[in-house]
Amino acid sequence: MQLKTIKQIKNLTNKRVIVRTDFNVPMKGIKIIDDYRIQKALPTIEYLIKQKAKIILLSHLGRPNGKVVKELSLLPIAQKLEKLLKKKVAFIPQISGEEVEQAIETLNGGEVLVLENVRFHPKEEANDSRWGKELAGLGDIFVNDAFAVSHRKQSSVVAIAKYLPSYAGLLLEDEITNLNQVLEPKKPAVAIVGGSKIETKIKVIDKLSKKFDQVLIGGAIANNFILSAGYEVGKSLVDKDFKLNLNKYNFEKIVLPVDVIVTGGKTREVDLVSKNEAIYDLGAETFKIFKIYLNGAKTIVWNGPMGWFEKHEFAKFTLKLASEILKNKTAQICIGGGETASLFMNKKLSPNIFVSTGGGAMLEFLEGKELPGIKVLEK
Length: 379
Fold this sequence. Notes:
Layout: E1 16-20, E2 27-28, E3 31-32, H1 36-50, E4 54-58, H2 75-85, E5 89-92, H3 98-105, E6 112-115, H4 129-136, E7 141-144, E8 166-168, H5 170-183, E9 189-193, H6 198-211, E10 214-217, H7 219-228, E11 254-255, E12 259-262, E13 266-269, E14 279-282, H8 284-295, E15 299-303, H9 316-327, E16 332-336, H10 338-342, E17 353-355, H11 360-367, H12 372-375
Parallel strand pairs: 1-4, 1-7, 4-6, 5-6, 7-8, 9-10, 9-15, 10-11, 15-16, 16-17
Antiparallel strand pairs: 2-3, 12-13, 12-14
Helix pairs in contact: 1-2, 6-11, 8-9
């Protein structure tokens, strides 16, 4: 695909540029727990500042369902952005209307304005054309820099782009470049797929197993494979309504756990789990097998933890996998999904490791789906 990008715009001086960012960060009350997504938005914002554009930032936070929810205001985001940019950032607690229009009118080139949470508007998630047109009326140019929501048909992502010259931001461009490279991987290529919901991952597993040499399966997704093979999974997290036809899979490529950690921290071979136990992590022998594949890989993709890693006692092999990847300085590595990406926050990453801001968007991209937020930007 060929995208129109902001660096192709010849003159941005005093142009009103609406940027759809993704500031949907973890919060505890009004405190930001992890500002990774805000930091990833900085290159595009800083580029526009240097170009003397009037910068209007749109984002969502949480799921307010079209209502104003005080705890989901973008005010703390604007305050954090001001500290990161080391530059004054204005905030308006509205998304449209006279006060917003006046604030934009008084913006000078190189100044930044954050509008309120777009999901406070009831029409945002409906991809409403009228609301998209109203948003478009605030600017001269639209920039999508929110890869993580580009799989969503929403007004501030898709509808708005129909009414303005529209471009990809630097982060969006970077995401697509890295994920495209993964779709044409250097061999040997290894994917790690974990997490809990098999329904959201099974098509990606199918797609990756055709292009990659191995797909290493962990987390609750592995439980579904184990159950479908006729083994006991006891009280493990599993989607019993989702039936897997194991005959369609090549198990020279699909690599499942051979041992697991269960209730009480005990190790069990996968065919020896009892009805009263639950699977919570990979076992040591499985990790050794996974490690062999990873050490020889030239391309690695990882989406989803290997166990109940929020609990310290069941995080061991998810953390050990992360440690192996951090030591790898040569393979092309792409990490995605909020839980998996969190393992790499505040770590010194070598240039060969790319951490995507998208979870669902990354999965759909790797699945081969057309993302509506990107489609509208294509030449």
